[in-house]
Structure formats: C-alpha cells, structure tokens
Specification:
Layout lengths: L1 H23 L4 E3 L2 E3 L3 E4 L3 E4 L7 H31 L7 H30 L13 E2 L1 H22 L5
Antiparallel strand pairs: 1-2, 1-5, 2-3, 3-4
Helix pairs in contact: 1-2, 1-4, 2-3, 3-4
Family: Belongs to the PMP-22/EMP/MP20 family.
Function: Functions as a key regulator of cell membrane composition by regulating proteins surface expression. Also, plays a role in regulation of processes including cell migration, cell proliferation, cell contraction and cell adhesion.
GO molecular function: protein kinase binding
C-alpha cells in the first residue's frame, strides 16, 4: 500500500510541476527567432515585450492566464487536502474532496489550453505591433504541449483519487 501511496504522490507532484512549467515558461508559440507565451513575446532572445491593455486580444490572454494560474493553485490545494485527508479519514472513506478539486484543476487546464488553441491564429496575426509578420509562421512550443499533458495527468489523478480507498 505504501508503494501505491508513494506513486500517487509522485504522480500528483509531477502534475503540479508540469502545470508550473506550462504556466511560467515562455514557449507556447515558437518559431525562428521568436517565442511567445501568454505573458509576453520575445524576439532574438533578448527583446521581450509584455502584453498590455493596448494589445487587441488582451482579454483572451487574460482568460488563458487566469485559468492556468487557477489550475496550478487548485492542483497544489488538492495535494495539501490529500495529505490532510490521508491522516484524518477513516478507513474505507474516499478522497472525494481531493478528487473534485483535482478535476476542477483539470477543467481549468483544458479551458485555458482550448482558448489558446482556438484563438492562436488571431493572437499571432492580428497584432503586428507585438508580433510582426514572422509570428504567423511558427509552431506550438513545449509549454503548450506540457499544458495538454498536465491536463491528462490531472484528469487521471482526479479519477485515481475518486476510486482510491484508504487502507492499512
């Protein structure tokens, strides 16, 4: 049973780590000589421009920022609640609260990554003052991919907590 609990804890920490990296790192959209995320765009690895209110699709980016931050916070909260429930629940009780919070984190990641996926073309082609013409040519970066991997991890983790029963 200790091996099972240890693997669940490691899986949850991996989920939280993926969420932190996906939220913070600047590699959601990359190309030759530039990289962008939901916070800023950088060209030539040194010229970085933060997104501001003057950016045409700033509300869209704020939605992605908010959902990614919320998913990270919820994932960390779920882990702390799991640790509290681990020592406080009676045998046979389920980790329902942990599961619900983890599944809410999963939902937030899905919403944030889906909004970015849907609006990516508008974000990178309708704002030449931030991106320029070269930004339309590029591909999704590893932070974007990690966001979707974190979605899968948090979903599986939420389901594991839902069916997990505390045993000796």
């Amino acid at each position: 049973m200790l091996v099972l609990l240890f693997s669940i804890i490691v899986f949850h920490i991996a989920s939280a780590t993926l969420l932190f990296i996906a939220t913070i790192d600047n590699a959601w959209w990359v190309g030759e000589g530039f990289f962008a995320d939901v916070w800023r765009v950088c060209t030539n690895s040194s010229n970085c421009t933060e997104f501001t209110d003057s950016f045409d699709d700033y509300p869209t980016l704020q939605a992605v920022q908010a959902t990614m931050i919320l998913s990270t916070i919820l994932c960390c909260m779920a882990f702390l609640i799991f640790l509290l429930q681990l020592f406080r629940l009676k045998q046979g009780e389920r980790f329902v609260l942990t599961s619900i919070i983890q599944l809410m984190s999963c939902l937030c990641v899905m919403i944030g990554a889906s909004i970015y996926t849907d609006r990516r073309q508008d974000l990178h082609s309708n704002n030449p003052e931030f991106y320029g013409a070269m930004m339309a040519e590029g591909s999704y970066g590893y932070s974007y991919i990690l966001a979707w991997v974190a979605f899968a991890f948090t979903f599986v983790s939420g389901l594991m907590y839902l069916i997990l029963r505390k045993r000796k």
